[in-house]
């Protein structure tokens, strides 16, 4: 049996959670995996939490949606934290944007990584890199896709005219990865 | 062509343009807004025409006009919008206007919700318009199939001179998946435009498209022609379905679209526990596939839909045993989980292995 990653990315609109999911999806395809991306497109997108469900799998994907059994959750704000932490499968990973979320995960059957993404983004001089920093941490720990594939995906998702942003995004991925690695 | 990742709605619009569709008329409604958005951006670049009509009724009648002139034309909408288009669809049937209607279903009835649903199965297959008629209804189960079926739909529409509906639940429109856009549709014989289309008549002849049949015997004759020639040909040539893990199955789910994908997970899980269960997935809802239901090894059929069981009568008719058909579904924009189908199958089929 191959591995199936069920990834939920959630946060406020504007934190880049939808594009984070799309980058993982595209990178997965570049790596030769089966992939799908589903947005939550209800009224909750306005003001509340935006989220998307991504599957990266070695096998053909049946249901592209999942409510529980999440293997990787990236939560960028408190409403997302409250909504998704209980839905992560035992043994799964939770990546918390600790710049915004002060709560701690009160489960001992999951691996939790607190990443101060806003601070790291400020250090890099670009607040928009928030999602890429989180993605760097995710890829370092859960090995869902190759880090280099994310950068290839970047041009697919954002367009070839964004090529000049590749170096800073490469740096952001590395920073996120480095921070997560230290957390072990 | 390499695979690209596209949102279902955009992929549908792109597939239509690749299939030669140059006229799109529509009116916005969630969850299919990326379809008109894509056309509005891309159609002018290939010399096509995009019209945001003043209403759904206007849009389908503009499609009637473009189709009557032999152009590849399309409209799309979601449930309440498709309800408004029904009159026009019936007119296209009577005028034998080839055209494609994409229906991206959301929860109903009425204005309902914007979340995915399959509650317009009956509207599509039984017709919300008046009169004796059928239209081919294709139900894709993935973004790739949506792309392929849109291309096929234009071929079917022109071969039989009929409106064709591509019926998707909203999730197919919203999700992103890898797609190959260069699959060629099966080429079908096309009715020569000079024999019927406006503006294509040969010298000395005038093509006309008439919807009002003053003469009842003639209207009956035309209806007989549809039901004795056109529809049997479509039933014979265009029916399609997928069978999943059906080789040794003793029980079977019947489902289409996103629900069929959800059920594939359930089938795999139940198989892992030793239950001999499979899935029949109709890809055309009219014509409804009959052959897979001739399988006499199947003890129970479980229909799964995002509605209150609209396909159940078709399955009962096809398998011929009303009491052998069970149903589980969610409605109003709620999406069932694989676990719900696993639990339902275990409960209803008891300790069946």
Can you give a write-up of this model?
The complex is a heterodimer of chains A (184) and B (353). Chain A is an alpha/beta fold. Chain A has a single domain (4-183), classed as Pyruvate-ferredoxin Oxidoreductase, domain 3. In chain A, 39% of the residues lie in helices and 24% in strands. Chain A contains six helices and six strands; from the N terminus they run βαβββαββαααα. In chain A, strands 2-3-1-4-5-6 form a six-stranded mixed β-sheet, sandwiched between helices. In chain A, α1 (17-30) packs across α5 (147-158) and α3 (117-124) packs across α4. The two termini of chain A are 27 Å apart. Chain B has helices spanning 8-18, 34-42, 56-68, 79-95, 121-127, 143-160, 170-174, 216-238, 257-272, 312-319, 338-348, and strands at residues 4-7, 23-26, 49-52, 73-77, 99-105, 137-138, 163-169, 176-179, 241-244, 251-255, 277-282, 284-286, 300-305, 325-329. In chain B, the strands form three sheets. Chain B has a seven-stranded mixed β-sheet, sandwiched between helices. Chain B starts with a strand and ends in a 5-residue tail after the last helix. Chain B has two domains: 4-238, Thiamin diphosphate (ThDP)-binding fold, Pyr/PP domains (Rossmann fold, 3-Layer(aba) Sandwich), CATH 3.40.50.970; 241-348, Rossmann fold (3-Layer(aba) Sandwich), CATH 3.40.50. The mean pLDDT of chain B is 97. Chain B is globular, with a radius of gyration of 20 Å. The longest helix of chain B has 23 residues, at 216-238. Chain B contains eleven helices and 14 strands. Chain B is of the alpha/beta class and 353 residues long. The chains are: A alpha/beta (184), B alpha/beta (353). The A-B interface holds A 22, 25-26, 29, 35-39, 41-43, 61-67, 156 and B 3-5, 30-31, 114-115, 170-171, 174-178, 258, 261-265, 268, 335, 337-338.
